[in-house]
Design goal:
single chain, two-stranded antiparallel sheet, 100 residues, Aspartate Aminotransferase, domain 1, alpha+beta
């Protein structure tokens, strides 16, 4: 079982985490992450439909649950089109500032 940020993850979750981490501050587009998750099957579809978006959101949510104690989370920004790995303090500080 792969280990990321001292947390054991399934192969699938580790692959998603690695792709988001490699993408850096610009993040990885949702459609690219879906293609990585599904491999060749995703190549048949140009855009995600709602069921596929839900599957990806569930995977990201489960990864975030594993990362709770690590101080990181995968954040989806830009109308749900891009995923980024962010420190929890940075995420909460930015969202608090924008709410004021």
């Amino acid at each position: 079982m792969p280990i990321r940020l001292d947390m054991p993850m399934s192969e699938t979750k580790a692959r998603i985490f690695d792709a988001v981490e490699r993408a850096g501050q610009h993040g990885i587009p949702r459609d690219d992450l879906w293609r990585l998750y599904c491999g060749w099957r995703a190549q048949q579809h140009r855009r995600l439909h709602d069921g596929q978006r839900h599957v990806l959101k569930v995977q990201i949510s489960q990864i975030n649950a594993l990362l709770v104690g690590c101080g990181y989370r995968i954040h989806c920004g830009c109308n749900g089109a891009t995923y980024r790995l962010r420190k929890r303090e940075t995420f909460f500080a930015e969202n608090t500032m924008s709410a004021v």
